[in-house]
Amino acid sequence: MTNISDAAKAVIRRNTDEVQGGGNWALFDELFDDKFLDHTPQPNCTPDKPGALGLYKKLRAAFPDFRAEIHWQRADGDVITTYKTYHGTHQGDFLGVAATGRKIRFETVDAMRVRNGKITEHWGVANLFSVLQQLGAWPAGPKA
């Protein structure tokens, strides 16, 4: 029998692989609760379900091959924390930077609450500063 934490991990993996990585917007609608709340929304995004969908669509437009490599997941009841690295090729505007054709990668740590099979809350930190450096929009620091 699957416990709550394992079921919640599976929901997060489906979101990461099929929605973020595959652009399955119908599945997004199934996986996200209508009262979803993002406690750490990205700039110019609302902290609700339409805001999350808008962010995902912006990412897929900027990086059509956008995908994540999940390194690990940890559960605390119905809250799943995931450490992952996103990969993609910059083929559309992102954070005001026109397409460069460069390959990027950046790390993210997300915590998402899953209740009754739906994602209800999100907290996260993404290393977007490194993306700007990779795109040449911010000078790289000195090499160590």
UniProtKB/TrEMBL annotation:
Pfam families: SnoaL (PF07366). It comes from the Bacteria. InterPro entries: Cyclase_SnoaL-like, NTF2-like_dom_sf. One of its GO terms (biological process) is polyketide metabolic process. PANTHER family: ESTER CYCLASE, POLYKETIDE CYCLASE SNOAL-LIKE DOMAIN. This is Ester cyclase.
